[in-house]
Amino acid sequence: MGEALVALEGVSKRFGGVEALREVSLTLNAAEVHCLAGENGSGKSTLIKIIAGVVTPDQGRIRFAGETLGRLDPKGAIARGIQVIYQDFSLFPSLSVAENLALPTEVGKGKRVFRRRDVRAIAEAALARVGVDLPLETEVGALGVAERQLVAIARALISTPRLLIMDEPTTALTGREIERLFAVVRELRARGLGILFVSHKVREMFAISERISVLRNGRLVAAGAVGEFDEAKLARAMIGEDLAETPYHWTPPRAPEPPRLALEGFSVPGELAPLDLTVARGEIVGVAGLLGGGRTELARALFGFRPHYRGRVAIDGREVRLSSVAAAVAAGIAYVPEDRLTEGLFLSQSIDRNLLAASLRRFRRGPLLDLAAAEAACARMREAMAINTADGRRPVATLSGGNQQRVMIGRWLLREARLLILNGPTVGVDIGSKAGLHRRIRRLAEEGLAVLMISDDLPELVLNCNRVLLLHRGQLIDVLSGAGLSEQTLAERLRALT
Amino acid sequence: MKALTQRSESVVALVLLAAMAGIGLLNPAFFSLSNLFSLARSNVVSGIMALGVLTVMISGGIDVSFPAFAVAAMYLTLRLMLALHWSGVIGPFLLATAIGLALGLVNAALVHGLRMIPLIVTLGTGALVRGGLLGLVGTSQINIDRMPPELIRFGSAELVAVKDATGAHIGLSAMILLYLLLAFLVHLFLGHTLLGRGVYAYGDDREAARRAGFSPRRVVFVVYGLAGALAGFAGLLHAAMIWLANPRDFIGLELDVIAAVVLGGASIFGGRGSVLGTMLGVFLLVMISNSLILMHVPTTWQRVVVGLIVIVATALTSWRDRRRLAQGLA
Fold first, then answer.
1. Do the two domains A6-239 and A261-496 of this chain adopt the same fold?
2. Which among A392, A456, B9, B320 is most buried, taking Cβ atoms within 10 Å?
3. Complex ipTM above 0.85?
4. Taking 90 as the threshold, does the pLDDT of residue B15 lie above it?
């Protein structure tokens, strides 16, 4: 066997007093998909940046294709054939697909004049190389996430790299889009590219990679061929402890009582066909389906965003009219949106203010707010939701994704919600925090909350839900529960949807 | 057809035609040659300033200091010409442009170097320059009797001249050619140079533009510098065309020009906008205020109309951007 494409030898990096990486050694071969696994904060990003020349290591050597790299800058890394596809894709939404593909190449050549013909030629060649067909003149902002990612991949391949680093490429994709991405990745591997695939999703790593290296707290804690790992071993390596997860079991209440949520002929013209649904106290009901199939539409209608809905809605047996968000909130419905950053949190405001945002009324004393009571309630909620901070005055933006998600849920619990709607509750959250979040959600359900959980993450649905609704083209096409609810059946049902 | 209606330029053009037809019906004098010529002439100064504002807005910034810069460039140049008995045309225009450019670069240095918000920076520099001009240089108006005759001659050059039925002289100002030339140059810059595309890229996503290899510093200095230079040039041109230099001129013009640029389809959030759209927007706005004057609407009510136009145009473009975004996510 020849020399490895990339070899890191004893690489360390400190930022101020924080040790981001400590003596990490790692090799990656050509024509290989190598997964770099680890929780958020484990040092994955620093490692990528070192290979990409953005960050210079304090110690250690990097060898690339047999050559020892000294001080490397991003341009030098690109010139040697190292390309990174960042999580945000770094695309320009107002510019056309062709310009997005060709601009970096043209800038790199030091050109001054912009010729549409040259740009088209570069763009066509780039798309042909990935084997996808996208309209060149369309604005990138009008494309879906998966298509944007293809543009980012095609752009990265223009310079014929030898190493492609993909930073959490599946975060925003649905199941089927992930499969298409994997097909592209395998094709690239077949052409001899080395691919460093950064992820924290255990299933994906097994599906795509030949080798896995696991980082935890800046150290390489495990490495080897994919066959040497199983899911439990990988998860243990990543979080440093065992994850014992048993499926959620729901026992119906003994005395009959009205369900927390009852829908009768609930529909939204053009978005949702009439559906009937009841969710009882303590139930966690999953909602699966393709993006645009009615999942988010259902959530948003229940949260009062679709005042023109038809049908009847009852909460705890009392009929309510969801004519606005305020009405839905007053009825006891809480919604944690998919993109908590743009739809839910006030990022620059403090954790406590974010927690209090929906329940200020509770702490009213005359025309003023009872700040002491509010602060005490926030402290209790931070404790209950295990939000990892001692100080509620810090801006929410300083928290990790998992903690931010818990702030969002905590906000609704402070309001004493009866129905909690979660949309993609653990998107972008690493597996340690994910397990913690799942435990919280289950505990809340056991305490009497009803939960609707919309997710693309099939293991998450199977593990935490006692029923899963399948929505497609705005219709409720099936409900899976009991023995009929398994990852395999769910995956098959979703694949069959078109 | 769909592509046509989705282009904001064609929407503005349609609105413009409809407005022209409406105004023409109300007031047949609108279509008279003398009115059309005077309309074209009224576009020149605002239009040249709008080209700079457009470039700044595409980069995701905003400039409200340009009227102050224009007036400073105009007044300083003229005072200098009077003091030194300096005559000529090209020299003074170069000086006015250079004054505007220098002031624009100050904006750029503050925006880029200190990472300040463009609105605050340009509000500050605008007030500073205007106040400094009146306090340090003077408040007296330079009237036609003291204006350098070469400038007056240059500013009154005509492209075509005809006599109407009553024998009155009707001329089309040659300054329109300057406007068209500058517009063409800015169009070439934005659409056909890599740096111009970089302005769009920067307005879309700064970090991504940096990763793609564009220099953020160069983009910021070029856009604010260009806006200042165009304002300085337009300032002196204004004095040459009206044979008068008033250091209190151009107050409130920033709103009209920004309104015209937004009306022309540029996005206040950056990344979008075109020279053609901006020219149409300027034309529409100038035409509307012009017609309000013809219909003897008091100036205070003209401000109301401009305010309404800003709000409606911004609402329409932000609605359009949101819809595009929604389509993108679906």
1. yes
2. A456
3. no
4. no
Range of the domain at B32: 2-325
Average pLDDT value for residue range A293-306 = 90
pLDDT of residue A1: 47
Top-level class of domain A261-496: alpha beta
- pTM, two decimal places: 0.73
The distance of B288 to chain A (nearest Cα, Å) reads: 30
The CATH number that applies at residue B242 is: 1.10.3470
> What's residue B330's pLDDT?
38
List the single residue in A with minimal CA-CA distance to B326. Answer: A142
* Dist. CA A85–CA A156, nearest whole Å: 7
- Spell out which residues of chain B touch residue A300, defining contact as CB-CB under 8 Å: none
Residue of B189, B197, B202, B218 best to disrupt the A interface, most CBs of A under 10 A: B197
Contact B324 A139 (CB under 8 A): yes
Domain count along chain B = 1
Answer whether B198 sits within 8 Å of A107, measured CB to CB: yes
Query: Is B330 inside a domain boundary?
Result: no
